[in-house]
Structures are given as C-alpha cells and as structure tokens.
Fold this protein.
Amino acid sequence: MNETKKVINPIVEIYQDEIMSVLNNKPSQYATVTFTKRGNGQVRVMNLTLRYSNPDYKGVGMGYNPEDKGLIRVKDTQAHKEYLNGKAKKDGYKCIPLDGITQITKFGIDYIVIS
C-alpha cells in the first residue's frame, strides 16, 4: 500500500513589527503570504518575492510612496510568470497591506502574525 505522508511545517508566532525581517531574511528570496485585501476584505494567498529589478520598486513613477500608506511592493511570482507567457496583461508587481498579513510561509516554516 502506497501511503502519502503529509508534511507539517513548524509554526512560529511573530508580531506585526517582525514581518519585514522575516520577508527579508536570506537565503531564500521567495515566500508565500496570506493577507486580507483592504478594498474588499478578501483573503488572498500569494507567492511573492521582494527582490526584483523593476524601476518602480521604490514607488518612483507611481505617484505615491507605498510605505507612506503601509504597503509593501512585491512581485507576485505566479502573475509575473503568466505575464511573461502572454497569459496576463499586468506584470505581477503589486502592493500589499503590511497590516493585512496574517501568515508567511518561508524556509518550510509557517510564521503566524499575532496582535
């Protein structure tokens, strides 16, 4: 009988002010983030990276600085892949609300954001 074992990631609780240090922690530049969108309250799961070479990555040309609005600029890796393959119109660069992040999975560890 062929049994599939489910891998359970270790869970670490972090505070809101620790989010950026987890996301910026090397060696991996990729993470999966669960967050709540501000506009409609929708919960979203996104595979992303903070390391990219987009000229607008610091908000230049955007008309506003994302940090001033509590946002972080990321590259949605799935949306970017679809863009490169001609399946999407947008390039995958997005802003997500820092205060809406509830979970980060990185290095095989689930970081749960607590208040």
